[in-house]
């Protein structure tokens, strides 16, 4: 968990004031909740914006940190009631920044059907040009997981549901957020909104379903995994074809997320250990011996 510095550098604050003259006399409040970048709430009477500074050297094998991609997405989604309104994207002293209007609300805690509806709305929007494509289908996702494990210098036993999966890549690809976790869902007066658009992609619709349903991500950002009832209600909001496809790919998504947690642990982020164990509990639900081996990884 990263706590932003008390104030951003003077030159960056001056740049913000060029876009928002009222910011020169505004209060600046450090925000925390994100795990990668630094952010501040800039607030004056009746006006509020968020300044986000992107940390360099934050290469991530599952959730890329691309400030330009986030700026493009905020512009692309203008008018769709899904994301904040972008004010400016700029660089100052070699630091990439995005400035956008603040969303008034609280992080999501409950109401899985609303999240499903938000995801379905996003998936209906044509993607802008230049958006990255991500691994699609059992073989590519499994290979991606192995690449993450190699970065962590770890191994993880594969249950048959992972090793023998043959689900082909989705023939229809959609616009994805790729990081639909409780901390990125804001419940506003007029509905849910998504923030942190720095890793959008085009790919299989089940990707966003899998990230939201991940026990690791729920535990890290909400403090508890989804209940069986919440999982059932969430999936019921999607068409049967997507539910069936997610069911076929879920073990591989769990395998990749467990690999990602191991990578984070290898980098000294101890809070991912419990998240890893939660993900493994789903991955090895029917294979207790492999669960024991995985916990010793």
TrEMBL record:
InterPro entries: Aminoglycoside_PTrfase, Kinase-like_dom_sf. Keywords: Kinase, Transferase. Pfam families: APH (PF01636). GO terms for molecular function: kinase activity. SUPFAM superfamilies: Protein kinase-like (PK-like) (SSF56112). Residues 29-213 form the Aminoglycoside phosphotransferase domain. This is Predicted kinase, aminoglycoside phosphotransferase (APT) family. It comes from Cognatishimia maritima.
